[in-house]
Amino acid sequence: MGSEARLAELAASAIADQPDLIVTTGTVVTGIVAKLTRTVPIVSVTGDPVGTGFVASLARPGGNITGMAITAGPEVAEKWLELLCEMAPSARRIAMLRNAKNTSSAAQLRQMQAAAARRAVGLTIDEFRIDAAAELPSILEAIRRAKPDALVVDNDAFLVSKRSDVVAVGLPAISGSRDFVEAGLLAGYGSSILDVYRHVSSYVDRILKGAKPADLPVQQPTTFELILNLKAAKTLGLAIPPSILVRADEVIE
């Protein structure tokens, strides 16, 4: 976000060098590269490769793109909401900060809104979307003015790069990226990055040995991690329930 033109230049330059394969991370980058080549194999790491149109289906990608879906579909957003409500049980107004260019986050937003509607406690999910990088400061200020009880942050590369600004909003918050938690966010729940890139490296190896991306099913993560930041919890005045603590894969103190 904010540098798509430069990314397109870099992608075009890379493709001009006639690589045997390209590895991409994120919906925006994958989309840029996918528009520039239908022949160079692409091993991607994205949130929703089917929903974004990168592949025909997970089982049969059908083109020059395969790889790893970094989330197990929009359902992960319901897990974010569940965990957030357990850690901040008095929360009723939840904000979601998302990059509008990350199309998988739209499905996550709908999933959370549907989950909130099923609860009997009157939860609401308010969207705060960023359409251009320059909007981030004003959107974060809008969140401060709205004073929601808690925040869900889209697991997006641009927002991860601005994680310190997002954390500074000072709300109980969860995301799918451990980078946010290390920067001071309350919690993160998402696929294990080591597990994701282990699968990516195996596909790189297979394609370089002659396999076709169209024949390699897009894989979904099998290992998920819950990471908690107890220092953030203390700052926010929250007592993390023991039931959450025992489920945590990592606790930052």
Task: Write up this protein.
By secondary structure, this protein is of the alpha/beta class. It has 2 domains: 4-71 and 192-223, Response regulator (Rossmann fold); 75-191 and 225-252, Rossmann fold. Helix content is 41%, strand content 19%. The protein contains 11 helices and 10 strands. The protein has helices at residues 4-16, 27-36, 75-87, 104-118, 136-146, 157-161, 163-167, 178-182, 193-208, 230-236, 242-245; strands at residues 22-25, 42-46, 65-69, 93-99, 124-130, 150-153, 173-175, 187-191, 224-229, 250-252. The strands form 2 sheets. A 7-stranded mixed β-sheet has the order 5-4-6-7-8-9-10, sandwiched between helices. A 3-stranded parallel β-sheet has the order 1-2-3, with helices on both faces. Strand 7, helix 8 (178-182) and strand 8 (187-191) form a beta-alpha-beta unit. Helix 1 crosses helix 2 (27-36). The chain starts with a helix and ends with a strand. 39% of the residues are buried. The mean pLDDT is 91.
